[in-house]
Design goal:
Chain lengths: ~110, ~110
């Protein structure tokens, strides 16, 4: 059974650019959630995808968008990058059901200069 | 709205000593509760969870947490810590019946000293 994998592990962008982060869910899971973890903070929920549809969104602006593919993998896209977007981006996969227990990948460290 | 408060940002402790990491939550609906651990430069690993049933839950590496509904707490304990337990610990809550969106606390850094 494969776990949650994220790519790339590190990324450096400049302000105003666009970035795409990728996540492969754990085998048997149909739901992907994305979180942003700023330095020294707890993760903050960005949004969740279930059956290729957005299934809940946190307090993030529309320039944060996502996709889920038929194989349940997912992308997080961020447009018009700002310095405050520098953070660790975590993907978690789960199955809809009791507890919706989420299992996390190692994350993508994004630095915006 | 839900919230989670981890009462200690850092907990220094000597090896083989007991430790308690405190977590309080606020919610108007039934909740599921979780503890995750994050080692340096890594993602989050699920340590233990409370969904229902026994209020005392245990992990395979000696940690335990007790759900106290009246005090809205879910404190994490270990009777004897090891150097390898040094990490960041996050308490999280989600509402039963929703998407499973997790609300996290700010984290507690456990520093185990030799």
């Amino acid at each position: 059974e494969t776990g949650v994998t994220q790519s790339p592990t590190h990324l450096i962008k400049t302000r105003g650019q666009q970035v795409t982060l990728r996540c492969s869910s754990q085998s048997g899971h149909n739901t992907v959630s994305w979180y942003q973890q700023a330095l020294g903070q707890g993760p903050q929920f960005i949004f969740q995808y279930y059956r290729e549809e957005e299934n809940g969104r946190g307090n993030f602006p529309p320039r944060f968008s996502g996709l889920q593919f038929p194989n349940y993998s997912s992308e997080l896209n961020v447009n018009a990058l700002e310095l405050d977007d520098s953070a660790l981006y975590l993907c978690a996969s789960s199955s809809q059901g009791r507890g919706n227990i989420q299992y996390f990948g190692a994350g993508t460290r994004l630095s915006v200069l | 709205a839900q919230s989670v408060t981890q009462l200690d940002s850092q907990v220094p402790v000597f090896e083989e000593a007991p430790v308690e990491l405190r977590c309080n939550y606020s919610s108007s609906v039934s909740v599921y509760l979780f503890w995750y651990v994050q080692y340096p430069n890594q993602g989050l690993q699920l340590l233990l969870k409370y969904l229902s049933g026994s209020t005392l839950v245990e992990s395979i590496n000696g940690f335990e947490a007790e759900f106290n509904k009246s005090q809205t707490s879910f404190h994490l304990r270990k009777p004897s810590v090891h150097i390898s337990d040094t990490a960041e610990y996050f308490c999280a809550v989600s509402s039963s019946g929703n998407t499973g969106k997790l609300i996290f606390g700010q984290g507690t850094t456990l520093q185990v000293k030799p």
